[in-house]
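Fill in residues.
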């Protein structure tokens, strides 16, 4: 068998091509709540049933050639945006979810990918517009979750995600230190008309699958940068340095704009037209 590395070092489940035992197609860390049906939905290889998935090596049996998807996950690291009072996004998420203000409001679709948000049509799915929106519909309450800071970091790094196609079950892709794997989102949250879009949960879950299960998985980015540390140097010496530097740049730019809210009505009208949410007034 080949040597596993990357995120595969923590995998309990491995996926190989039956005709090429040395080709690791993917795998995952097995945590509570992952069923064969969940696994089937992620890799489409084994019987679809609700029995608990067992650790081991799974071989793909197919008539044709088995290849990894060429789709790459959206790189992401911990979002250090401000959630102070006066930040409408954070305030509205806290108001909806009814939790302590010590917790953080997390964007499901990251601010750093505003261009993709607009070009991939996400903006048109938003029905609740922010009243103060220097960055447009991406700051809608429908793109936010209130998470305790450690859980927030795990969410941003795709260590866990929420599967909307299995009753909003929490799936952990790395070790379940918080004991949240296999639990479900509260029905009261799901019944809230302001809750996040199902499609955004599905997008995040797909990114988590690509990040953790494709091949050996993506590297774990360093998140701990104490005051005075050389954050840029650490990033440049790590994996996917260019991609992460780009993410950090756009993320910080987005949060800088978020902190400097402009409520000018003409600017807001222009943003709405750009996002395609209101017709031109002529």
């Amino acid at each position: 068998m080949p040597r596993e590395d990357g995120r595969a070092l923590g995998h309990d489940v491995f996926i190989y091509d039956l005709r090429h035992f040395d080709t690791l197609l993917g795998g995952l860390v097995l945590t509570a709540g992952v069923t064969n049906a969940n696994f089937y939905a992620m890799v489409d290889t084994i019987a679809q049933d609700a029995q608990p998935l067992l650790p081991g090596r799974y071989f793909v049996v197919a008539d044709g050639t088995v290849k990894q998807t060429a789709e790459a996950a959206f790189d992401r690291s911990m979002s250090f945006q401000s959630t102070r009072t006066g930040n409408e996004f954070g305030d509205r998420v806290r108001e909806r979810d009814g939790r302590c203000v010590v917790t953080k409001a997390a964007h499901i679709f990251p601010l750093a990918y505003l261009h993709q948000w607009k070009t991939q049509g996400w903006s048109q799915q938003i029905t609740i517009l922010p009243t103060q929106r220097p960055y447009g519909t991406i700051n809608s309450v429908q793109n936010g979750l209130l998470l305790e800071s450690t859980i927030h970091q795990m969410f941003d790094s795709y260590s866990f995600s929420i599967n909307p196609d299995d009753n909003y079950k929490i799936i952990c892709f790395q070790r379940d230190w918080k004991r949240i794997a296999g639990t479900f989102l509260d029905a009261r949250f799901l019944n809230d008309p302001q809750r996040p879009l199902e499609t955004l949960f599905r997008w995040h879950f797909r990114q988590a699958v690509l990040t953790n299960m494709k091949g050996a998985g993506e590297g774990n980015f360093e998140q701990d940068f104490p005051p005075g540390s050389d954050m840029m140097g650490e990033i440049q010496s790590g994996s996917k340095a260019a991609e992460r530097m780009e993410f950090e740049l756009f993320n910080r730019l987005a949060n800088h704009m978020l902190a400097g809210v402009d409520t000018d009505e003409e600017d807001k009208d222009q943003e709405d037209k750009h996002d395609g949410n209101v017709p031109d007034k002529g």
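DSSP finds nine helices and seven strands in the chain.
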